[in-house]
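BUG: 3D viewer hangs when loading the predicted structure for this chain

Environment: internal workstation, default settings.
Expected: structure renders.
Actual: progress bar stalls at 90%.

Input used:
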Amino acid sequence: MKKLSAIVPRWLPALAMMLSIFAFSSRASHELPNYGGWDYFIKKSAHAVGYGLLGLSYLHALPKRNYKLAWLLALLYSATDEFHQSFVAGRHAAVTDVLVFDNLGAMITLFIHYRWASGHNLIGRYHEKEIQPT
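Structure tokens produced before the viewer hung:
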């Protein structure tokens, strides 16, 4: 079994992302900024980006690059965070945040990482991982 000192640092990015998401969702609605006509777009994009980064940080922490488990953990954390948000003043839990924005953010980010890590770009062409000296 690996030493705890080797495992814990790999989980620090995931813990930092979870704390960050928790802190943002703990803010009462009157404390949140309003971006006018862009409010919906900015806030839902933040969901996607946040859970995309959380999925990547889970991927970093898990042994053997388990993409499905990283996605599932991000989705489960999203569901628990929406439940937590239902207790915050002026906020409510939204299933669409979990199933659409958080889910797609984690899924798309992990897909892009998978494609890149396997040596392909997004449109299916192979790319060189290392630049050869000239």
